Amino acid sequence: MSAKVGRREDWQGEHVLVTGGAGFIGSHLASALAEVGARVTVLDDLSTGDIENLLPSLADGQVRLLRGSILDNRALVRAFRDVGHVFHLAATVGVQRVLERPLEAIHVNVHGTQRVLAQASKCGARTLIASSSEVYGPQSGPLKESLPLVMGPTDTIRWSYGCAKALSEYEAFEHHRRFGLPVTVARFFNVIGPRQTGRYGMVVPRFVSAALRGDPLHVVGDGSQTRSFCDVRDTVEAILRLAESEESIGQVCNVGSDDEISIATLAERIVAWTGSASPIVPVPPETVYPGGFADIERRCPSLDRLEALTGFRPAISLEESIRHIAAGIASRGELEEGASG
Ligand code: NAD
Fold first, then answer.
1. Which one-letter DSSP state was computed for residue 110?
2. Global confidence as pTM
3. Contact in structure between 136 and 162 (CB atoms under 8 Å)
4. 47 CA to middle of ligand 1, Å?
């Protein structure tokens, strides 16, 4: 049975499952839930997540980690025991990882989510699933949830990630209609913060690491493509408010920032804010993403629905986020190789 959480203090003592909780967003969410008194189970196969992300929360006993896959029914049954809430974040993520392992990405993102939803329906758990702005395909912003979906061509594998997420959304709503699953779909736009890895094509950690090393920041194409970046602390706050909102059940909602910036300007700002002498070097897209890559010119959410449902608007500035990320990378000694965006 789903437990009722309407206010922040209601999380106290609640048992919450976070799939993908050893990853970037999931680990921040798990510690935020632990801070408000929830008992948190993380189910993660550690394919891109890292146990280190959870160390402080594991040590105080408020978070426990089950190492296993969302594709494994036995692991799911174990993870769901006595759970009233689930945040489903486990996925194969990142443009480069999806291009390198397209079949695995489709399998995990479609079938894994199917299994999580089936288990959540059996338990009646209040559920939030992580979708992505990629479901909007090659459309320009500000993107509203009510827009029809426009998918890129099926011979360009990068669109398979957005398709898989869209399919999961259909499935979530069908579970809501047929089985009464109290589910909310959150479409995340670019999220940034400490613990995000640049290994799979994420632009901000790659740029910040390169700037801290004094290496070139490689801007893909002419850098005029725009993105809007939302600090993970704002993202976690938005997710918690959505999960606390009765009205968000059965709805899809964008989660992100609507403060747009071009990738060329982002590179300049990161160099300035980190006090770096790194040069900014344009590179042709095909040298970074060989085959099957199609970039999106503009990516910006409409936040009207998020604000209407939760009263929340992101508050942390890009400069504050970048300084926080730079401090995290420097303290963890994670000056990853390569820089592109
Ligand atoms: P991440 O890679 O850091 O986290 C994903 C986690 O899922 C990892 O810990 C990984 O080990 C785990 N995982 C992968 N396959 C698994 C499996 N089969 N079983 C169990 N665990 C598995 O990525 P993230 O950025 O934290 O993304 C979290 C969620 O948010 C994902 O669903 C992603 O699609 C979505 N999202 C993220 C962004 C962003 O900007 N970071 C944007 C849009 C959507």
1. I
2. 0.94
3. yes
4. 9
